[in-house]
Amino acid sequence: MTLPEGTPERLPGPGAPAERTWQAQPDQHPVSPVFDELTRQRAKEIVARYPVARSALLPLLHLVQAVEGYVSQDGIRFCAEQLELTTAEVSAVATFYTMYKRTPCGEHLVSVCTNTLCAALGGDAIYRSLSEALGTADRPLGHEETVGEPGTPGSITLEHAECLAACDFAPVLQVNYEYYDNQTPESAVALVEALRRGEKPPPTRGAPLTDLRTVELELAGFTDDETVAAAAVAGPSAAPESLRGTTLAADHGWAAPALPDEPPALPPLPEK
User: Fold this and answer.
1) Which keywords fit this entry according to its UniProt record (predicted)?
2) Strand 178-180 and strand 156-161: pairing?
């Protein structure tokens, strides 16, 4: 609307909001007391390994899992505190990688490869057998579910796993990331039954079997027992199936051709 004198009408607008001063609120969720002085010291050692502090997040999350058996919201805040990150930044990483569990795990984590080759050779049947053996009559155990009280002796968390990089031994499963090769539904069920009895059957390859929290501490870069560490390094790693190509080459005198002194010329690019 234009007033008679030719100037536009100006309606009174709202007054300027009163200035407010932001005040920090006390943390309503303090870091869990399970992160004791030893854990904090280890966290500082991890951070000191890296020129940029946030690069320490992955081993720091493994340290949290070694203490709690999973990555809790307190664990998220602990990592954020150590690295001066936001909890959103830490959560983005913890939820991206499947090795970081968001619910409490058992003493042992059983990972069954159900990717293409293992599945075709029996991985799906192995997972189904374990799910039924560890569950109840009316409800098989589901992915990332635990039988027994989490963290107690004999408790087991079962999970589907993507490719475990052992196609030459398919079908395979892992217990706390140690390999058990050439499995069948029967051998897999016998394995988890032994675990539930408190036994630790030796893996096909790799370090002697321990428990998930010990492995998580090792992944963070620490070991409390040098004898265990030495045994882990001495454990078998290669197997005839993996070395078959090298063996055939040696038996037949095969060798890759030597690299030329000068790299071959690249073909000319086509005209646009």
Assistant:
1) 2Fe-2S, Iron, Iron-sulfur, Metal-binding
2) unpaired
Structure tokens at 117: 């080759």
Q: How many Å apart are CA 250 and CA 262, to the nearest integer?
A: 28
Q: What is the pLDDT of residues 154-204, one digit of tens each?
A: 999 999 999 999 999 999 999 999 999 999 999 999 999 999 999 999 999
Asked if 112 and 124 count as a contact pair (C-beta separation under 8 A), the reply is no
- Write down the pTM of the prediction: 0.80
Per-residue CA distances from 113 to 118, 165, 178, 205 (Å): 6, 9, 13, 16
Q: What is the dihedral of CA 195, 197, 199, 205, to 10 degrees?
A: -20
One DSSP character per residue, 11-59 reads ---PPPPPP----PPPPSSPPPTTS-HHHHHHHHHHHHTSSSGGGGHHH
